[in-house]
Amino acid sequence: MSRLAARVLPALLVLFSLIGTAMPASAADCPPLLQHTFPALQDEKPQPLCQYAGKVLLVVNTASYCGFTNQYDGLEDLYAELKGQGLVVLGFPANDFGQQEPGSNQEIADFCRLTYGVRFPMLAKTAVVGKDANPFYQALAKATGQVPQWNFHKYLIDRSGKTVLSFGSRTTPNDPQLRQAIQRFLAQP
Fold it and tell me: Which GO molecular function, any one, fits this protein according to its record (predicted)?
């Protein structure tokens, strides 16, 4: 083995082992709660939630014409601040409350990007309550015993995908209790 290969090979092995811990190696490594796929808001390409296994997730049902819509600013700030530590904010636009998300996926994507500079992952418009609620939101409601009562309800999921906390719409992204829970989940391996 050449000297160069002898120096590079150990570094590559470390790099590959780090990459392997960043994302599950198989569906078996993905928590059952995250075994769902949704279209992305911007281009409707399938987005498996398993790509976020091992991350702390803040899942929010959003709406463009709601009194809580300004929470997009705080959600984006939170994501920008903590994504390097493993936080992912996931937005699920929904027209379930007051018909406050009537637009198409493209209209919603443009609104979020142009008005609030949203960069966190947004998924295609979906139902989050009632008989038509998507299966992920059904599982979140079952895990917490709480369904969203309005837009901008938040579910916080730990890295294992087993512990889920629920926060109502009035809980802002900067609320001390929410931030403490996020920090507690981020501190867990």
Answer: peroxidase activity
